[in-house]
Design brief:
Pfam families: tRNA_m1G_MT (PF01746). By secondary structure, this protein is an alpha/beta fold. The chain has helices at about 20-25, 65-75, 95-100, 120-125, 145-155, 165-170, 205-220, 225-230, and strands at about 1-5, 30-35, 50, 60, 80-90, 105-110, 130-135, 190, 195. The strands form three sheets. It has a five-stranded parallel β-sheet. Strands 3-4 form a two-stranded antiparallel ribbon. The protein binds adenine (ADE).
Length: about 240
């Protein structure tokens, strides 16, 4: 899987070299390329933003460097990528979308800053690839970098071979539309807090039933919106 990230803060992504994703990169499972948007500017100050037409606070990212960046990356890859722009005005990122990303051969992430990117860039990008504006959640970040980091990690760990034991991906929060059940390890009692006895019973059927009930109970208490969804597993 190839991932290109265009940003004015390439050093932000240095952490992709460590941990699970770093190993996946060195094993050749993930080909992540980080680009400085300013390499596609042509003035002395390497300008990437300008004042908004119509007035208003803040600056808007200029379309020209974005156009050149997308042209070059797409030409180099030689096929039509998925082009993702993180934006608080996008569709919300979810586990199904992470899974979709993990099955995509090539994703280009364009990190906006300031008040956003000139709107014409999204229209132009649609000629080069499939464009999606994606939000991490209903809050505003200073730019797309943190959102892209989250999306790369969520999708990257679903690429076969990245996580050592694939079973660990099956029983986690959101994979079946519910929150994960609680986990315990030794000792059986810690600071007057015993592990739920069913987990020590050796009765696998009872353990499975208890875990399912815990999933439903937690989801009801913390995320009732997940149960109200049309495709809710509890319906
Ligand atoms: N950029 C700024 N806020 C964002 C958010 N909530 N999600 C994705 N990108 C963003």
């Amino acid at each position: 899987m190839r991932i290109d990230i265009v940003t004015i803060f390439p050093e932000f992504f240095d952490v992709l070299e460590v941990s699970l994703l770093g190993r996946a990169r060195s094993k050749g499972l993930l080909d992540v390329r980080v680009h400085d948007l300013r390499q596609w500017t042509h003035d002395r100050h390497r300008t990437v933003d300008d004042t908004p037409y119509g007035g208003g606070a803040g600056m808007v990212m200029k379309p020209e460097p974005w156009g050149e960046a997308l042209d070059e990356i797409v030409a180099d890859a030689g096929s039509r990528p998925l082009i993702v722009f993180p934006s608080p005005a996008g569709e919300v990122f979810t586990q199904p979308l992470a899974r979709r990303f993990s099955r995509t051969d090539h994703i280009v992430f364009g990190c906006g800053r300031y008040e956003g990117i000139d709107e014409r860039v999204f229209d132009y990008a649609a000629a080069l690839g499939d464009v999606r504006l994606v939000s991490l959640g209903d809050y505003v970040l200073n730019g797309g970098e943190v959102a892209v980091m989250a999306m790369v990690e969520a999708a990257g760990r679903l690429v076969p071979g990245v996580v050592g034991n694939p079973d660990s991906l099956v029983e986690e929060s959101h994979e079946d539309g519910l929150l994960e059940y609680p986990s315990y390890t030794k000792p059986a009692s810690w600071r007057d807090r015993p592990v739920p006895p069913v987990l020590l019973s050796g009765d696998h059927g009872a353990v499975d039933a208890w875990r399912r009930e815990q999933q439903l109970e937690r989801t009801r208490a913390r995320r009732p919106d997940l149960l109200a969804a049309d495709d809710s597993p509890a319906l």
